[in-house]
Specification:
Elements lengths: L1 H11 L3 H14 L11 E2 H19 L2 H15 L5 E2 L2 E2 L9 E3 L2 E6 L8 E2 H4 L3 H11 L3 H20 L7 E2 L18 H13 L5 H17 L1 E3 L5 E3 L8 E3 L4 H12 L9 H17 L9 E4 L3 E3 L10 H13 L3 H17 E2 L2 E2 L19 H12 L12 E3 L5 E3 L6
Antiparallel strand pairs: 1-4, 2-3, 4-5, 6-7, 8-9, 10-11, 11-12, 13-14, 15-16
Helix pairs in contact: 1-2, 1-3, 1-14, 3-4, 4-6, 6-7, 8-9, 8-10, 10-11, 10-12, 11-12, 12-13, 12-14
This protein binds 1-deoxymannojirimycin (DMJ).
Length: 415
């Protein structure tokens, strides 16, 4: 997965020998035929990382191998969606299966057993990948499955008169299974795909835009706060109201993206200033930390402190928002802030063969763990790079980046 996730970053960085090496690995080793895996893999992670990575390589290079492999993986992932039968859905399944053996699609788990619910981000973050797959495969079935799944989520929000959809869903009926809302873990990319799904469609899917606007309005009322120190931040609905997840930091960039690319008559004035303020808070999470690295969660008050989760997982969200803010405002301070964060990552988390998570951002020298997420190659390094490159390298009126930072072309492909 690290190879699939990192390929387009290699390409954009001009590391062509490494890119070719990765492509040959994919050609020879990435096959879903043959023996069962014997374990189940996340539908969501495989879609955003694996399928997203292959599709963006095809979009950037036009090399057939990536389209073929994306279609092979897409055919498998398609089996996760519920199959419509005449009076309802097959065996009570209403959302895409959470886990499946990619070499034996009959072996599926509809929802994580520890949760007894489906996760909003898992079921609601696939319309970008499946739409583009339909375009390149010249077959509507992928897009149809994802669009109809997205429509079910929108119908659900309408039925509940609640557009800031809670993070867990009932796995067997169209109901929420919690009232907890968040812009972070378990929810985040659902809100991202509403806006980006609209942009990807050439601004034709207006229902997605309307839904995003309603969700953002509810988020403003219930989750956005200003701290005693003047920091604008996002809490979750449950737990400590002074706490912000590092994961929620993508929201600054998303609001800025909306402020720039949504047509003026549909735009709201608060999006850009609030997105910029949230992004400043997220930068300060790094800047005010003893190591220059940000923790998984921070307490926001007069100043910003790491909370009980002081680990650094080399997450991309702050660099992502800095990238969008720079592209949209042209303000050089965002480049400087991004470089400062990247320098701290290089200084503390770089190892001989890659990067490694840090155990506690408050302790210098920083102690590293023997682990690196694949999103470091896909996202963290890509956003740190792209902000320093001219915008022609990846124009945002031609591409949307999926939640794993894989660029997919903006195409109009249907209603
Ligand atoms: C990534 O895999 C994606 O951005 C996902 O949507 C959320 N979390 C990680 C990065 O932190």
């Amino acid at each position: 997965m690290a190879i699939l996730d990192t390929m387009d970053t290699l390409y954009l960085a001009g590391l062509h020998d490494e890119f070719k090496e990765g492509r040959e690995w994919i050609r020879q080793n990435l096959t879903l035929h043959g023996q069962k895996n014997g374990y189940r893999t996340s539908f969501f992670e495989t879609t955003i990382r694996g399928l997203g990575g292959l599709l963006s390589c095809y979009a950037l290079t036009n090399q057939t191998i990536f389209r073929e492999k994306a279609q092979e993986l897409g055919n498998t992932l398609l089996q996760a969606f519920p199959k419509d039968v005449e009076n309802g859905v097959e065996s009570g399944q209403v959302w895409p299966a959470a886990l499946m053996d990619l070499r034996n699609v009959a072996d599926r788990q509809l929802y994580p057993p520890w949760l007894r619910s489906n996760i909003l981000a898992d079921v609601g973050s696939n319309v970008l990948e499946f739409t583009y797959l339909s375009t390149v495969a010249r077959s509507p079935e992928y897009e149809d499955a994802a669009v109809s799944n997205e429509a079910n989520l929108l119908d659900l929000a309408e039925k509940h008169h609640q557009h800031l959809v809670p993070k867990f869903l009932n796995p067997t009926s169209y109901e929420y299974s919690t009232d907890e809302v968040s812009a972070g873990a378990f929810a985040d990319s659902y809100f991202e795909y509403l806006l980006k799904g609209y942009l990807q469609s050439g601004k034709k899917r207006t229902r997605l835009l309307n839904e995003w606007k309603k969700a953002m309005q509810e988020m403003k009322t219930s989750l956005i706060h200003k701290s005693t120190g003047g920091y604008t931040f996002l809490s979750d609905s449950s737990g400590d109201q002074n706490k912000m997840q590092q994961l929620s930091c993508f929201m600054g960039g998303l609001l800025a993206l909306g402020a720039h690319y949504v047509p003026e008559e549909h735009r709201e004035d608060w999006w850009l200033p609030t997105g910029a303020e949230i992004t400043r808070t997220c930068y300060e999470m790094y800047h005010q930390s003893p190591s220059g690295l940000a923790s998984e969660e921070a307490i926001i008050g007069d100043a910003i402190h790491p909370s009980g989760a002081p680990q650094f997982r080399i997450r991309p969200e702050t660099l992502e928002s800095l990238f969008y803010l720079y592209r949209i405002t042209g303000d050089e301070k965002y480049r400087d802030w991004s470089a400062e964060i990247f320098d701290a990552i290089n200084k503390h988390a770089r190892t001989k063969y890659g990067f490694a998570n840090a155990r506690d951002v408050t302790k210098v020298p920083v102690l590293l763990e023997d682990s690196e997420e694949t999103f470091v190659g896909a996202e963290t390094l890509k956003y740190a790079l792209l902000i320093q490159l001219p915008s022609e390298v990846l124009p945002l009126d031609k591409y949307v980046l999926n939640t794993e930072a894989h660029p997919l072309p903006i195409v109009y492909n249907g209603p």
